[in-house]
Write a structure and sequence with these properties.
Elements: E1 3-9, E2 14-20, E3 26-33, E4 38-43, H1 45-67, E5 82-83, H2 86-102, E6 116-121, E7 132-136, E8 142-146, H3 147-153, E9 163-174, E10 177-184
Parallel strand pairs: 8-10
Antiparallel strand pairs: 1-2, 1-5, 2-3, 3-4, 6-7, 6-9, 7-8, 9-10
């Protein structure tokens, strides 16, 4: 049976929201801090475990950078906890996830935004000029350059294996797998081939 409830933790200036199943197993956790109810956790332990299986502890640290660190043990509903209905929880969950994903600069953890990496463009399943292109940066997670970055630069679409330098601009998760959003630190001028020569 699924239960949803919330309760304050005044010592930490937090309100915790939990969705739990039998034996207090946490399905989703939201934690809001302070009078402005800033989301500091919006995590699914099962999603985090899938990330661990795919990318090891490095992936877990990346997940916690984006969505916060959930509790690791079953949760007992404390006396005085307030019940939360499914719709109310879903609305709070959507707000918290969106905030953690889109409005928090992920400049901590194992791969802070702004980190510079070297890598090689790889073949993307949808072909050149569409959606974007994957990048092998030698990490457990895939790199990805959005097509808009390359189209705005009016540069040639990079061939498979083209080396380049990149800056981390965002971190995303889907299905428990992290994706490192990148932008090249330099692109060739229109009509010039990759890789663009670096400064002497």
């Amino acid at each position: 049976m699924t239960r949803r409830f919330r309760f304050p933790a005044p010592e930490d200036d937090l309100w915790h929201w939990f969705e739990v199943r039998d034996a207090g197993r946490v399905v989703r956790q939201i934690s809001f801090r302070g009078p402005d109810s800033v989301p500091v956790v919006a995590a699914e332990p099962v999603e985090m475990e899938r990330t661990r299986q795919a990318c090891g502890e490095w992936g877990v640290r990346l997940y916690e950078t984006v969505y916060g660190a959930p509790v690791r043990e079953p949760v007992v509903e404390p006396p005085g906890a307030r019940p939360v209905d499914a719709r109310e929880f879903d609305v709070a969950w959507g707000r918290a996830r969106s905030f953690r994903q889109c409005h928090v600069r992920h400049d901590t953890g194992p791969l802070p935004v702004g980190t510079h990496l070297t890598g090689r463009f790889t073949v993307s399943p949808w072909g050149p000029g569409v959606t974007g292109v994957f990048v092998d940066v030698g990490l457990p997670a895939a790199g990805f350059v959005d097509a808009l970055v390359l189209l705005q630069a009016e540069c040639e679409w990079p061939a498979d294996g083209t080396p380049a330098e990149f800056e981390v601009v965002d971190l995303r998760f889907g299905g428990g797998r992290p994706q490192i959003r990148l932008r090249p630190t330099a692109v060739p001028a229109p009509g010039e081939p990759w890789p663009r020569p670096g400064p002497p």
